[in-house]
Amino acid sequence: MYYLLPFHANQPSYHLLYLFTCAGKPHITQKWVRKTMDELYHHDINSISGDEDNGEISAWYILNSIGIYSFCTGHPSYIFDPPLFKKATIYFEDGKGLTIHAPEYKTENVYVKSIRQNDNLIENLWISHKDFVNGGGGNLTFEMSNEPTTKKTYNKSQLPFLFLPHE
Using one digit for the tens of pLDDT, what is the confidence trace for 76-103? Predict the structure, then answer.
């Protein structure tokens, strides 16, 4: 599956990594998102992988580094993936902040075991924009691991939104 990385160079290919989450296999997405971030992005002049024509690649990296990605353009939701920080705070227009925690963050901990918003366990593989923003003043906590959660199954409502005809 190493062939996925070279294709992360332009907008149409960004979504490939997230199709595994849409199929109920988030651990595969988590592995490849982290691998892409680690291997294709660097802290130097050649740090951006691909066509940075409108800031999309930088936006992809920033969103993923805090543990979310807007998979379906125009749909107000985000897919979860492994954050790159132990703690990051996002401040919204109303001045409230949402603090994202990943206390077990380590380079080898690429898998998300669970996510809580404030003290509530999130069972979905996604979060709506409304819930994300309304969490302002609260916390989003990722429990991380170096082992994937492979035995869990998800019902249709827990999977990310996909625009499919005849659904």
Answer: 999 999 999 999 999 988 888 999 999 9
